[in-house]
Amino acid sequence: MDTENQTWVREFILLGLSSDWDTQVSLFVLFLIMYMVTVLGNFLIILLIRLDSRLHTPMYFFLTNLSLVDVSYATSIVPQMLAHLLEAHKAIPFVSCAAQLFFSLGLGGIEFVLLAVMAYDRYVAVCDPLRYSVIMHGGLCTRLAITSWVSGSMNSLMQTVITFQLPMCTNKYIDHISCEILAVIRLACVDISSNEIAIMVSSIVLLMTPFCLVLLSYIQIISTILKIQSTEGRKKAFHTCASHLTVVVLCYGMTIFTYIQPRSSPSVLQEKLISVFYAILMPVLNPMIYSVRNKEVKGAWQKLLGQLSGITSKLAT
């Protein structure tokens, strides 16, 4: 396309999930409730880990980071989506769109690296339990957490800069619930092959590499568990990984399906539903999974509720 026909838009219009008003109101109520549960649930997990000394372990240090990522990821998308559900003009300024893409993409990348780090933590706990505290010392845990945050942020910065250097011409309608990278690059009036390659490369680095590390960790974990002779011992070893494994299956599955091959990506509706899953459902499910399936967390909850009950009784008397 000729350069004189290439212009830069000042704002985008997000088409969202539906144009029907009744549907939008229903979705607003549903998503608002789920967002509030997300914020409350994840902050309660963080608070519980801070207050209970029994949870001051590497596993729960990484879980704190995961909860922060979940809340931040949901906050980067859901408030804007809630506002648009009640607005006729669903506009988002160019800068806000770029910021939303940067934070959502970065936090998504951080989560995948964190899940790989947590898989390594579970590998050490099951396969080398006697040296667990020596290997997973505070300094290593801090460095692993920093690596997760830095790698996800750097990749997101690169992808955001590359994406928003594309001329969008007069096309400003994004058929999505947020400024998602695949939806944004479709607006470009130039060849986007290089962007698709960049997305694929970053997907391999920040998605498939952590996924392979998770896979290798669980191959070793399962191999070790199968060597345990007692049934009770096998159950106990598997139970230490059950919550993390559940989150890994949910988190990696749809992202691999969406991002590894942009040219053969799912339909627009599927992409929207996948985004809703990650922005709303996953942040709600994570604290539930780690609470319901974890004896230590349930024990900490019971202890905290008992203390609160005792304080309430004293105040009442």
List keywords for this structure.
three-stranded mixed β-sheet, 317 residues, mainly alpha
Can you describe this structure in just a few lines?
With 317 residues, the chain is mainly α.
Describe this structure as you would to a colleague.
This protein has 317 residues and is mostly helical. The protein is 75% helix and 3% strand. It is built from ten helices and three strands, in the order E-H-H-E-H-H-H-E-H-H-H-H-H. The chain has helices spanning 21-51, 58-85, 94-127, 132-135, 138-163, 181-185, 193-227, 231-259, 268-292, 295-316, and strands at 11-14, 91-93, 173-174. It has a three-stranded mixed β-sheet with strand order 2-1-3. Helix 3 (94-127) packs antiparallel against helix 5 (138-163) and helix 3 (94-127) packs antiparallel against helix 8. It is globular and about 65 Å long. Belongs to the G-protein coupled receptor 1 family. It comes from Vulpes vulpes (Red fox). InterPro entries: GPCR_Rhodpsn (IPR000276), GPCR_Rhodpsn_7TM (IPR017452), Olfact_rcpt (IPR000725). One of its GO terms (molecular function) is olfactory receptor activity. Keywords: Cell membrane, G-protein coupled receptor, Membrane, Olfaction, Receptor, Sensory transduction, Transducer, Transmembrane, Transmembrane helix.
Topology:
Layout: E1 11-14, H1 21-51, H2 58-85, E2 91-93, H3 94-127, H4 132-135, H5 138-163, E3 173-174, H6 181-185, H7 193-227, H8 231-259, H9 268-292, H10 295-316
Parallel strand pairs: 1-3
Antiparallel strand pairs: 1-2
